[in-house]
Amino acid sequence: MMTNRFDGKVVLMTGAGSGLGRSAALQAAKEGAKLSLVDLNEQGLEETKQAIMEVAPEAEVLLLTANVAEEEQVKKYVDDTVAHFGRIDGFFNNAGVEGKQNLTEDFGSDEFQKVISINLNGVFYGMKYVLAVMKKQGSGSIVNTASVGGIRGVGNQSGYAASKHGVVGLTRNSAIEYGQYGVSIKAIAPGAIMTPMVEGSLRQMGGENWEEVGKEFVQPNPMKRFGKPEEVGYLVAFLLSDQANFINAAVIPIDGGQSYKY
Question: 34: closest CA among 70, 58, 69?
Answer without folding.
Answer: 58
